[in-house]
């Protein structure tokens, strides 16, 4: 304490641990997309390049060229490219030959979410299931030591926070049932209930949302932010139909697209559109959250089967 280190000129990169460090880094890397011809996505220090082609061999050539262009830019700007952390993944409906598929991984971790090449979200759900199981073990350890309110706070902090990360993206997976099962176990631990106890009354009593309810809420929140860029039925035709205020849902040839967050979030909005127009967004979301607390859903179909939702 009270001692100052010697000043050293920073000739490369940005100083770590400084207030301006993150901003200087973003400025430093900002022109990377202009140096690489393919589409790129930048998020903090994560960089993703997207190459698209119908021919596998040509696609591989594009990937190699992108890697070369990026490497040249990194060297010229004093960046060190960690090749051990550089991953390639291939999304296709065709079966690639072995010499192509061997150059790609079946699953990669992107911003904390595991993405597999079939977009099943199975690896990610398995990953968070392990994390949630450890939290349940923790809840069991403290269940007889602290009041229920403390355990509930721990549930919010360590269990629900894991579920909600990226839920809009993977929440409509067929494997979501695995998360719901773990959630039921956690609820029974909090309430010290029997392992076969019916959980819907417990969700209502504790005022906790099921993973399906959280998916519905987060999806509609996401859609409300995207409303200015959405296309409605009234933008497509001038007929005065009851669905003219619906968000237009494009034709989907693949079931994968039909169950994607892009389509499902629009369907959720359309199911609630009569209430969205009734309230300001913040009031609507508050009322929706309270309504969901009274209606714990185990399947998304239960929500769509509710006719004329009112709150």
TrEMBL record:
* GO BP annotation list: DNA biosynthetic process
Q: Which Pfam families match?
A: RVT_1 (PF00078)
Domain called Reverse transcriptase: residue spans:
1-115
Query: What is the protein's given name?
Result: Reverse transcriptase domain-containing protein
Organism source for this protein?
Graphocephala atropunctata
